[in-house]
């Protein structure tokens, strides 16, 4: 039994040992990094004050009457100004002022820069800005549901990036290189190299099963070498 356990343990660990190393490296990175920093909370100024609902003259009842096809209605803010954001049937996304009911114009490049600087907590200048309308040009770090968005990048070594909704002017995502590294660490950790969302993939299950078998055979070897009454006769 000892020779069989030794043989299987050797080959099992030769197969899964590299992944064990990846699990250790990625796990150390993920537990040592402050998750609030990873989420980019230090890049943006603290959350704005709660919306004063009493100051909103344009009610949700009025919105429903004016836009009977409205769906997915959300109350948000842009630079402190309350807005309703919703899908207006086949017309797509619409944003209206929650005080006046006026339809908001699409955010242009100048306004997107102003919004980004308004939210940015540091003092770096904007390095680049571009409008993303199609999912084919969308970075993997952002969900397509936010399209169209302005991608605003600041001049800093970690490449801080803000995504500003073209419809509402809301800051929909904050990204930087440590977040991007964390994302890849997570993908390597759960062994889903496509989008990092499937924690129940078959590859992870296979390697984890082989790793468990390797641990069991290792436990058998440990027993015979350390705990067995006949350990002196074990080579």
Describe the overall structure.
Keywords: Membrane, Transmembrane, Transmembrane helix. This is PepSY domain-containing protein. The chain crosses the membrane at residues 12-31, 202-224. The protein has 235 residues and is an alpha+beta fold. It folds into two domains: 2-35 and 182-230, no CATH class; 41-175, no CATH class. 40% of the residues lie in helices and 19% in strands. It is built from six helices and seven strands; from the N terminus they run H-H-H-E-E-E-H-E-E-E-E-H-H. The protein has helices spanning 2-32, 35-38, 60-66, 109-119, 177-190, 202-227, and strands spanning 70-78, 81-88, 93-97, 126-132, 149-154, 161-165, 171-175. The strands form two sheets. Strands 4-5-6-7 form a four-stranded antiparallel β-sheet. The protein has a three-stranded antiparallel β-sheet with strand order 1-2-3, with no helix packed on it. Helix 1 (2-32) runs antiparallel to helix 5 (177-190) and helix 1 (2-32) crosses helix 6. It is elongated, with a radius of gyration of 27 Å. The two termini are 13 Å apart. The model has no long low-confidence stretch (mean pLDDT 83).
């Amino acid at each position: 039994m000892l020779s069989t356990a030794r043989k299987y343990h050797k080959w099992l660990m030769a197969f899964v040992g590299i992944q064990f190393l990846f699990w250790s490296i990625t796990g150390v990175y993920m537990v040592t990094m402050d998750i609030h920093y990873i989420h980019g909370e230090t890049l943006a100024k603290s959350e704005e004050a709660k919306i004063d609902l009493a100051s909103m003259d344009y009610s949700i009842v009025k919105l429903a009457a004016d836009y009977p096809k409205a769906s997915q209605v959300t109350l948000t803010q842009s630079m402190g100004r309350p807005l309703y954001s919703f899908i207006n049937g086949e017309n797509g996304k619409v944003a209206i002022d929650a005080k006046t009911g006026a339809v908001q114009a699409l955010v242009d490049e100048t306004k997107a820069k102003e919004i980004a600087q308004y939210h940015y907590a540091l003092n770096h200048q904007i390095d680049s800005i571009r409008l993303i309308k199609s999912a084919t040009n969308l970075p993997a770090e952002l969900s397509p549901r936010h399209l169209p968005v302005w991608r605003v990048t600041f001049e800093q070594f970690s490449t801080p990036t803000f995504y500003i909704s073209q419809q509402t002017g809301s800051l929909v995502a904050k990204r930087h290189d440590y977040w991007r590294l964390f994302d890849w660490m997570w993908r390597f950790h759960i062994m889903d190299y496509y989008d990092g969302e499937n924690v129940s993939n078959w590859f992870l299950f296979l390697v984890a099963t082989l790793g468990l078998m390797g641990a069991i055979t290792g436990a058998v070897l440990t027993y015979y070498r350390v705990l067995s009454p006949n350990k002196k006769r074990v080579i």
